[in-house]
Structures are given as structure tokens and as C-alpha cells.
């Protein structure tokens, strides 16, 4: 049966994962695009930047062998709804983006679920488990350390490797205008630089990532996402940390040995300041773990997940 609030019109993407049922579900006024397959304990997978749910295409089928896998595009990304940003950064706060995903899973019938996430999706996931501690039983975060730690430790290496954090937060419509001038160049410039050596992404998948950035609403939303990270989200993170609140569920941290996370931080030590039960390891990749080493990611997740 369709979930409550499901819309009949299909997602715009011409690329579909075989065997997955695609749905567009209204969650408190925001449409969330998702794809579902499998049976067993539910697992929600959240994508990173500048991609969409297709980044899980080589991992999700393996997890669906013994789990109910839900792939979702974040608010503002892929084929999910793209509300207009606001001046104070709340519309694309991780708090609201996390609320979308909790609401999605509830409408699909899952009050509790496990959660695997990458990049911006992992920042949403971190806020989700803090704001909804009873909803998630296990959390996997791929190639990030918490936003608060990143912004409290900005140096030349970080600013050089993650320059786009600062570019995307610029005002006066500058990043929106420049990205819209050549979306393909923008997406390639980020992905090609952060992929491990000798790795490529299928042309049809890369084209779908670029398709999304041809939508001015998505460009605006993605900039608002990063602006919120520097303002509203950081405020929420500081409040949570000052209150002594930690992630309560077990956490698996995976990162690329050749990514900036692997080079610039000690990820396990960092995460142990934010969660009580943390384990994990580096993989021989750059930033895009699921596309560079899907078999290793799948094995690690299947070992960790219930």
C-alpha cells in the first residue's frame, strides 16, 4: 500500500535503481523523494554533496538482501522538494532536514530504524539522532567529523581542501550565479577532485547529479544548506555540546584514508567526544567511499547493522 501522503507523479530522474519502488511523500509540506526495497530491519540511507540517492547504487542492493532499505534525497536535493531559503538559515537547518527524514520513515511505517549517511547527509543524521534519540538504533557516518569540530579547527589545510564551504556561504547571490553559469563544470570540479585516484563515476549517474544542479531552486537550496551549517546549525551544535548531550546509539565511523577527513583529523578520537559508543576505520579511498569501495562499505555496514 502507498504510504500516507504519497504522490503519484514519479521522480524526474531518468535513472532508477532496479527493483526499488520509488515514491514521493509529503512530510509536513515538503516532498521527499525516496526509493524502497527489501524486507527486514529498516535502514535509511542519506546522500552527500553534490550528489543524490544514486550515490548508494552499489551498496543499497547488498543491504536490501536482509534489510528494508530506504534511499532518500534530502530536502533541497535530488528530486525532493526545494522550499525557498529564508534569511535566518532555518529552512535548511539540519534540524528541519532531520525532521523530514524522521517523518518519512514514520509514514513508511518505521518508528525506529538504522541510519547510514555520507557527507551533508551525515550532518543531517548527526542532528537527527540528537533531536530524536529514540528513533535511531544504529548510526553510520561516512567521511565526516562533526560540524562543530570542523569549524572550531579551521586552518590553512582545511580552508584549502574544503574551500567550497566558504564559497557556498558567500552572499549577494554570488555562488548561485556562478554555479548556474555552468552546472556541469561545478559538479565535475568537486567530484573529480575528491574521488580517489583512478576512480570514475558512470556517465549516466554523473549526468543525473548535474541534472539536479541545472535547477536554480536546488542551487539556492544547497547554498542555504551550507550557510545554515555556519550559523543556525553551529548554534544548535554548541547548545547540544554545552548541555552534555551525546549520541546514544552505537556509531560506526568510516572515512577515506586519502580524503581530508583521513589526513586532517583523528576521526575516532573526535567522534568519541560526541558519542558514547564509537568504532570504525579508514578505507583505501578518497571522499566518495560508496562509489570507490562499495564492497568494503557494504561489508562494514552489514557487519555493523542489526
Concise overview:
The protein is of the alpha/beta class and 306 residues long. The protein has helices at residues 60-63, 94-107, 120-131, 147-152, 156-161, 163-167, 174-181, 183-194, 203-213, 216-230, 232-242, 260-264, 267-271, 289-292, 294-304, and strands at 6-7, 21-27, 30-37, 42-46, 68-72, 113-118, 136-142, 251-256, 278-283. The protein has a 9-stranded mixed sheet, with helices on both faces.
What does this structure look like?
The chain is α/β, with parallel strands linked by helices and 306 residues long. It has a single domain (6-304), classed as Rossmann fold (3-Layer(aba) Sandwich). Helices cover 42% and strands 17% of the residues. The chain is built from 15 helices and 9 strands. A 9-stranded mixed sheet has the order 1-2-3-5-4-6-7-8-9, with helices on both faces. α3 links the parallel β6 (113-118) and β7. α2 packs across α3 (120-131), α7 (174-181) packs antiparallel against α10 (216-230) and α8 (183-194) crosses α9 (203-213). The longest helix has 15 residues, at 216-230. Residues 1-11 have low confidence and may be disordered.
Share in helix: 40-55%
Provide the CATH top-level class: Alpha Beta
CATH architecture: 3-Layer(aba) Sandwich
Our count of helices gives: 15
Radius of gyration: 18 Å
Total domain count: 1
Write down the overall mean pLDDT: 95
Low-confidence stretches: 1-11
The CATH fourth-level homologous superfamily: Alpha/Beta hydrolase fold, catalytic domain
Specify the structural class: alpha/beta
Gap from first CA to last CA: 26 Å
Amino acid at each position: 500500500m502507498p504510504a500516507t501522503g504519497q504522490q503519484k507523479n514519479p521522480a524526474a530522474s531518468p535513472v532508477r535503481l532496479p527493483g526499488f519502488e520509488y515514491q514521493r511523500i509529503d512530510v509536513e509540506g515538503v516532498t521527499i523523494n525516496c526509493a524502497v526495497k527489501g524486507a527486514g530491519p529498516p535502514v535509511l540511507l542519506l546522500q552527500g554533496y553534490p550528489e543524490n540517492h544514486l550515490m548508494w547504487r552499489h551498496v543499497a542492493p547488498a543491504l536490501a538482501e536482509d534489510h528494508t532499505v530506504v534511499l532518500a534525497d534530502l530536502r533541497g536535493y535530488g528530486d525532493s522538494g526545494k522550499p525557498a531559503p529564508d534569511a535566518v538559515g532555518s529552512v535548511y537547518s539540519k534540524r528541519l532536514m532531520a525532521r523530514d527524514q524522521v517523518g518519512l520513515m514514520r509514514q513508511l511505517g518505521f518508528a525506529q530504524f538504522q541510519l547510514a549517511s555520507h557527507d551533508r547527509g551525515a550532518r543531517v543524521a548527526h542532528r537527527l539522532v540528537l533531536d530524536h534519540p529514540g528513533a535511531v538504533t544504529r548510526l553510520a557516518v561516512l567521511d565526516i567529523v562533526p560540524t562543530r569540530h570542523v569549524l572550531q579547527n579551521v586552518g590553512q589545510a582545511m580552508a584549502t581542501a574544503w574551500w567550497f564551504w566558504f564559497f557556498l556561504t558567500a552572499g549577494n547571490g554570488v555562488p548561485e550565479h556562478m554555479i548556474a553559469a555552468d552546472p556541469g563544470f561545478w559538479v565535475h570540479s568537486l567530484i573529480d577532485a575528491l574521488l580517489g585516484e583512478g576512480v570514475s563515476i558512470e556517465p549516466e549517474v554523473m549526468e543525473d547529479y548535474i541534472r539536479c544542479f541545472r535547477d536554480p531552486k536546488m542551487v539556492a537550496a544547497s547554498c542555504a544548506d551550507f550557510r545554515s551549517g555556519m550559523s543556525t546549525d553551529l548554534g544548535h551544535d554548541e547548545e547540544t555540546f554545552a548541555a552534555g548531550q551525546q549520541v546514544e546509539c552505537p556509531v560506526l565511523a568510516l572515512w577515506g584514508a586519502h580524503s581530508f577527513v583521513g589526513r586532517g583529523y583523528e576521526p575516532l578520537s573526535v567522534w568519541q567526544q560526541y558519542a558514547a559508543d564509537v568504532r570504525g576505520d579508514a578505507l583505501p579511498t578518497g571522499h566518495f567511499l560508496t562509489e570507490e569501495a562499495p564492497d568494503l562499505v557494504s561489508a562494514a555496514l552489514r557487519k555493523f547493522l542489526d
